[in-house]
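Troubleshooting log. The previous structure file for this entry was overwritten by mistake, so regenerating from the original sequence record. Sequence copied from the archived sheet and checked twice against the printout by T.R.
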Amino acid sequence: MGGCDQPGRAVALPGDSAAVVGTGFGSFPKLALTLGLAGLFGVALWARVSSIETAPLPDGDEAWYGVQVEHLLQGKPFAVRTGNGNPLNPFHAGLQIPLLWAFPPAFWMLRVPSMLAGILAVVLMYGLMARVLDRTTALIAAGLLAAMPVAVFFSRMGCDVSQTPLFNVLAFYYAFKGHRAGVLLSFLCCWLAHPTNLFLLPMLAPIFLVRTLRRHPDDPARGWRSGSPRCGGMRPSLRRGPPPVAGSSSSSTSRNCTCAWATSRAPFRRWTFRPKSSGESCWWPSSWARSG
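Regenerated output below.
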């Protein structure tokens, strides 16, 4: 028989045929998850770097970038637009310049920029998204990107569009941060990688606007979030004390406005801003009247 020294806790006594072991079992799911994620990312890394020179089969579009970079290094004329009219990707071609300058031409050089971009996209998906969302969401997103077949395929193809996932991650990160310059620069990089990334704009714009409005709820330029109207582009000063004394510096301040009310958030006191007439200048403090 087993005894109990504390309520709800079993203790093994001498002579018991079996003892219930409760410690250590709770760490098994965490260990299994860790091993599973390590295997997932390990296989994803192997799929991006193994036999990069031979699989898939060489393509003429990949060699086109290598030819243009070789012409550039030799001082010959080179094309600045692809056969489809897209601008030359400076990031893809720029990474090939030191490789072709330091090593003799080889097919693996054409795919190294895409391979690095694919690996870096998975790393930044977790590293950056964990800052703006949470670690669990970032880990799920990074795992999905690492195992996505199309992402693996383009990490092994030496074409300009292969850098799309990397710049997309940067664009979404700055959109979640509400960083204007970051969004503009990362979106410009997306467009330089391939013009079809313009379709990313309808997804970036709502995220950026919502994040910006949450960070600046009292910004006059975004006054539509608030329930009170604005007066002349500025919100009236709401204070709990009595109205300003006539003759003070605030009494000489005027606001041309047509707003009818503005209330503070205090539940026990409210100030009402009443203009003399519609479309007429509203003078402080004579137009302040205490109500309720």
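The beta strands are 3-6, 9-11, 254-256, 270-273, 281-283, 288-291. Archived copy saved in two places this time.
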